[in-house]
């Protein structure tokens, strides 16, 4: 998708981490660890805009668990690079900015000549590339190792999105999905067909909107991992408000 839209593309993968231990050698709170990395990321993202000024680029941000349950952050950067002159050294200011703004982060772990930065020119499908880092999606959470469950608990407690994309990257992926599902180009009929598809209608036909609003056609409950379906028009379906709902909502999201 991205390769189709860009005139030559290179992909840089930046990995941001921080120490899991405090100054006394004890384990740090995983939530504080994740927040520290996000603080470094916020500074690094601003530096990324400066480094890539004048270029066309998009990014995806992916959290991945370590074997011990702590998280580290990948930033996949997709850069239009028809001159093929992008290299890992270009991102040294970005990595340095993270280290300077994340106290537990070390310079050695974020050196551009190590594993923290890699540049590739053979990535054509953004979704497939990112899926290499989120391959455990789709598995039953409670069947995963306890360290991964700890990681999930930390992302919930901090209200941190595990995967996030730039607005432009989301649009590029939607355009590629449209091509695959319809065999058409997003530009056909001035983009009207893609807009109809995004709204859930038939690109070549009607969108089935009768103007009568929405309706509930089926209700599904899941008990012991097995879904049970009910037709609300036949009765036997009860709904109720959840008492104390505000007390179980996640805390404010990390920005």
TrEMBL record:
Residues 180-255 are annotated as: Disordered. InterPro entries: DUF1424. Residues 180-201 have a biased composition (Basic and acidic residues). Pfam families: DUF1424. This is Replication protein. It comes from the Archaea.
């Amino acid at each position: 998708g991205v390769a189709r839209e860009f005139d030559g593309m290179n992909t840089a993968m930046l990995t941001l981490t921080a120490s899991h231990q405090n100054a006394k050698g004890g384990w740090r709170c995983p939530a504080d660890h994740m927040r520290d990395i996000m603080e470094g990321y916020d500074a690094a993202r601003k530096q990324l805009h400066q480094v890539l000024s004048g270029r066309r680029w998009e990014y995806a941000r992916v959290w991945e668990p370590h074997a011990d349950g702590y998280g580290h952050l990948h930033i996949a950067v997709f850069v239009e690079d028809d001159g093929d002159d992008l290299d890992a050294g270009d991102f040294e200011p970005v990595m340095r900015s993270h280290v300077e703004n994340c106290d537990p982060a070390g310079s050695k772990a974020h050196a551009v000549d190590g594993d923290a930065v890699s540049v590739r020119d053979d990535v054509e499908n953004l979704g497939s590339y990112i899926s290499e880092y989120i391959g455990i999606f789709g598995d039953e959470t409670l069947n995963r190792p306890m360290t991964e469950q700890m990681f999930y608990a930390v992302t919930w407690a901090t209200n941190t999105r595990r995967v996030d994309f730039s607005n432009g990257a989301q649009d590029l992926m939607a355009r590629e999905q449209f091509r695959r599902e319809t065999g058409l180009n997003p530009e056909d009929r001035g983009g009207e067909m893609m807009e109809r598809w995004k709204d859930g209608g038939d690109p070549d036909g009607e969108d089935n909107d009768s103007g009568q609003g929405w309706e509930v056609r089926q209700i599904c409950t899941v008990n012991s991992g097995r879904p049970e379906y009910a037709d609300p028009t036949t009765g036997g379906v009860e709904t109720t408000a959840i008492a104390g709902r505000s007390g179980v909502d996640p805390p404010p999201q990390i920005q």
